[in-house]
Amino acid sequence: MSLTTTVHVLRHGEVFNPEKILYGRLPGYRLSDRGVRMAEVVAAALAGRDVTYLVASPLERAQQTAAPIGATFGLDTDTDERLIESGNWFEGKRFGVGDGALKNPSVWPKLRNPFRPSWGEPYVEIARRMTAALHDARDRAAGHEAVCVSHQSPIWLLRRYAEGRKLWHDPRKRQCSLASLTSFHFDGERLSGISYSEPAADIVADSPVAAEHGA
């Protein structure tokens, strides 16, 4: 009989970012107090499940989000560079709807091709590295459950890739809230289903950055 395995891909909690910049892969961006509570709620929601493997993006906010899960299950957190945030030319800048960034001619060349995208790491490369990380986590937790902590854009691209959908999308329509779980269910090596849950939804609803994209 094939082993049944579930890999939960967890988006990190809210980040302390008073400057409201696109922080991307920049160091030093930690969870806010609310983000820490989100991580704790997710760990509590997973308690009692059969989690035997825990891995996270190297970025601090992902490692922090993983910590309560590790404490709950007595697991060390492995680090996988493939789970890292998407590369983005606008990293370190304020860039959003209504802030005037799109009126600056210097950014226009970076926006010429939203299908690749021209402003950062290609969607297909993100999807492929995330898929490889997902499969490695599945193998490490074969017959049990794993948790991978990553970031909104990579998680959403992983899901679209697994579902055979086009990778280009409207970031405002991503189903990948702060501290949400996108769970991939396997029968042996075959993906049998994908489910989605928001254990920290009540806390997220009170977050001023709940609608933040690409974090």
From TrEMBL:
What range does the record give for the signal peptide? none
Q: Which GO terms describe its cellular component?
A: cytoplasm
* InterPro entries from the UniProt entry: His_Pase_superF_clade-1 (IPR013078), His_PPase_superfam (IPR029033), PGM_Phosphatase (IPR050275)
GO MF, one term, reads: phosphatase activity
Q: What is this protein called?
A: Histidine phosphatase family protein
What is the species of this protein?
Actinocatenispora rupis
